[in-house]
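hey m, so remember when u said the tokens were messed up on ur end? i reran from scratch. heres the input so u can diff it against urs
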Amino acid sequence: MSQMEGRASSAAPVLRNVLVGMLVVIAVVLQLSVAPAFAIRGITPDLALLVVLAVALSRGGQAGLVTGFAAGVLLDLAPPADHTAGRWALALLIVGYVAGRVREGSVGESRSHGGQGRPNATTVMATVSTCAFIGVSIFAVSGLILGEAPLTLLPTVAISVGYDLLLAPLLIPALLWLIGKGDS
């Protein structure tokens, strides 16, 4: 291997991480600035959660966990943060790990059956609905425990999961494609 090929292969992980970081920052900025225009009962689309899911579904549990934590910390600290810091970090960290484990299980199963090593559309949508429910529930229940959230958890979770299910077919394929381009 030549010296140039060695440098290119060592720069690839850095560029992949920069791409994921940019996607997270863009999602957080859009979630905090544009998404409130589409709020229903004060609940906005969870764009950062969808980016975390895409990273976890394309790279696995560890990448999903780290990306979830980073996106959560950004959401917790970015203005107008009106909640205790760490609630989104915990929720998205768990979401990233769960989605990554789904990916690792589905990739192993699809490869053993001659598949291409990526989760299918049904698995992706089931993962989106499950992880959106888990993430929003963790955020809402932690707010309830800390006295920061209203007692109306079910409508909050239902609207948020509905938003994520509506946006997932539009955003997840594009995000998976972008992340896949960063991996190649």
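this time it looks ok to me. The first helix runs from residue 3 to 33. if urs says something different then somethings off w ur setup not the seq
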